Amino acid sequence: MKNYNYARALQAALISIVFTGSATTARADIKDYEFQLVDQTVKKGDAIISVRLVHKPDGKPVPDAVIFATRLDMAPDGMQEMATKVAPMPSTEPGVYKFKATLNMVGGWQLSLGAKVQGETGTVENKLVLKATP
Ligand SMILES: [Cu+2]
Question: Domain residues for 119?
Fold first, then answer.
């Protein structure tokens, strides 16, 4: 009987360790981060695209992320092959990342971003759809 109680206590202790461990992981989950467009539309031609990186659980902007991948193409309008160059610009507001690009066609454009967040493992990967207007 004594051994049985000991086993129960050990099992309870292990379960609480597992739960504590998963709660910690959830708090630091890279999936808690998301890029959002500051403006859904831009004028056709030379444009500045601003995106905000937010930590979703508290809505806070996230500065100093390292953006390592960008692609801007017309996939939303069935023109994946129509891509344009994306150049990073200096940020003027913490958590807001700016890019310069020439959108030479009116319609839907998809901005794909890959980023690393300081102190987090994994990468933030988002695809944002914006509209170029005449
Ligand atoms: Cu096009």
Answer: 30-133
